[in-house]
Design a protein that fits this description.
Layout: E1 2-5, H1 9-14, H2 16-28, E2 32-35, H3 44-48, H4 60-65, E3 71-74, H5 77-87, H6 94-97, E4 100-102, H7 103-111, E5 118-119, E6 123-126, H8 130-135, H9 151-156, E7 159-160, E8 163-165, H10 180-183, H11 185-201, E9 206-209, H12 212-224, E10 230-233, H13 234-238
Parallel strand pairs: 1-2, 1-3, 3-4, 5-7, 6-8, 6-9, 9-10
Helix pairs in contact: 11-12
């Protein structure tokens, strides 16, 4: 199986380890990984701020890659959602759109987790990001009165020694929301602080999520609040060998 790896721009620039871990995880599952090396951005930052027209041409590297791979995988639920529901949706078939997968979605639905060898003996709180939960159906949002499921928790069950905690309001927004954190900074920080308090009450050492954008925001809130908690992308957990 040939997989195209899309490492979002902010991960590439600020959290390159997450991209490296994603690559190694895909290789562990037996995938032939093709790294998309063109300067890539899904266009989400501009589109979310009302400047979608500025993303003209952003679709070209993805349109070039899709016919050449079995799946296009990215370690970002929000970027995956934007690609499949906005940037590429008017341009390709439903079959091609179905190739776009967030990392844990790919591991759960396609590759399986039986080949993963990971160990992380720590207490980790799970933050369920909005795009992954409500956009990509990675789990059950708390507002829906339906049987609970979580693809993320199932994938993380492969990590030996992991003490995973899903605290109350785990699926409440962290407050980042892209440009929302800039234009409504006071509300954004308060939402992040509420998330920090919930995680602190659960006495976790780390907070994990499918989106480094959420974690970047929470990391700033943790530092400002002198919290000892640290953030980790799910790819880092799945590739850990402590």
């Amino acid at each position: 199986m040939t997989v195209g790896l899309f490492v979002p721009c902010y991960i590439d620039q600020l959290y390159p380890k997450v991209g490296k871990d994603t690559l190694e995880i895909l290789e562990k599952t037996g995938c032939n990984v093709v790294f998309l090396q063109d300067p890539l951005c899904c266009g989400q930052p501009m589109a979310n701020s009302g400047y979608e027209k500025m993303t003209s041409g952003f679709e070209k590297p993805f349109l070039k890659a899709l016919p050449e791979v079995d799946y296009l995988v990215t370690p970002s639920a929000s970027c995956s959602y934007h690609l499949s529901h906005h940037l590429l949706k008017p341009l390709v078939s439903a079959e091609e759109l179905a190739k776009v997968k967030e990392l844990t979605e790919f591991l759960h639905d396609v590759a399986g987790i039986d080949k993963l060898k990971a160990s992380f003996p720590h207490k980790v709180g799970l933050h369920l990001s909005c795009h992954g939960l409500r956009g990509l159906d990675l789990g059950t949002p708390s507002e829906l009165k339906v049987p609970y499921y979580s693809k993320i928790e199932k994938v993380l069950s492969a990590v030996e020694g992991l003490d995973l905690v899903v605290p109350p309001k785990a699926d409440e927004c962290c407050g980042f929301g892209g440009s929302f954190a800039v234009f409504e900074s006071a509300v954004s920080v308060k939402m992040g602080s509420d998330k920090m308090c919930g995680m602190a009450e659960a006495e976790v050492e780390y907070v994990a999520a499918t989106d480094m954008s959420c974690l970047m925001h929470l990391e700033g809130v943790f530092r400002a609040g002198d919290s000892p908690m640290r953030v980790m992308h799910i790819a880092e957990l799945l590739n850990s060998e402590e």
